[in-house]
Amino acid sequence: MYKIMIVEDDMTISKLISKHLEKWNYKTRYIEDFNNVIEEFMSFEPQLVLLDISLPFYNGYHWCSEIRKLSKVPIIFISSTSDNMNIVMAMDIGADDFIIKPFDLSVLIAKINALMRRTYTFKGQVDYLEHNGVFLNLNNTIVTYKDQNIELTKNDFKIMQILMENKGEVVSRSKIMNRLWESDSFIDDNTLTVNITRLRKKLETIGIYNFIKTKKGLGYVVD
Hints:
This protein is of the alpha/beta class. The chain has helices spanning 11-23, 37-44, 60-68, 84-92, 105-119, 154-165, 173-180, 189-204, and strands at 3-7, 27-30, 48-51, 75-79, 97-100, 128-131, 134-137, 142-145, 148-151, 171-172, 213-215, 219-221. Residues 3-116 form the Response regulatory domain.
């Protein structure tokens, strides 16, 4: 069952859309706390987002940009702000479609179904990993933490990926080294230590401290 998140401050519209989508076997969640849209997004993990422009606190453009830092999930703007400038701006910052209010629910469903078909040709697509507010974007090797970003090198990215894929579990040094240098015949064990140290310092530049912990004689863990 695909999940759709509705970011619309008119609860009558949100509930109406939600009820209609559920008839088509979509699981829905509509936002009520507009301070925590990204937290809701991370918790719900939707396959599509319906997003209004005019919202409390931050507008839809802001939340579209924030979601795009983490995911390529389809985003459809639904708004009565229908001039060409707003439509172009929405598409430029990462929206996939724009529907002008008021709209026919059958048209909305048709557009959602078409976008779902184009996007999800296979299951299991994951765009990011998250742990304790730290996001690793799997599409562009960028780490995001509290609205700060840093781009990782290939080796830094591989280390973060294997540790976050196994969060809470100790990953042995040999397993990490195999991920990093699987084609090399010999790598000095100290090279991994140098890479881990460099990665930790890089994470600290955006406020991420003590994220990677050493388990002496065993390996490394994020917990």
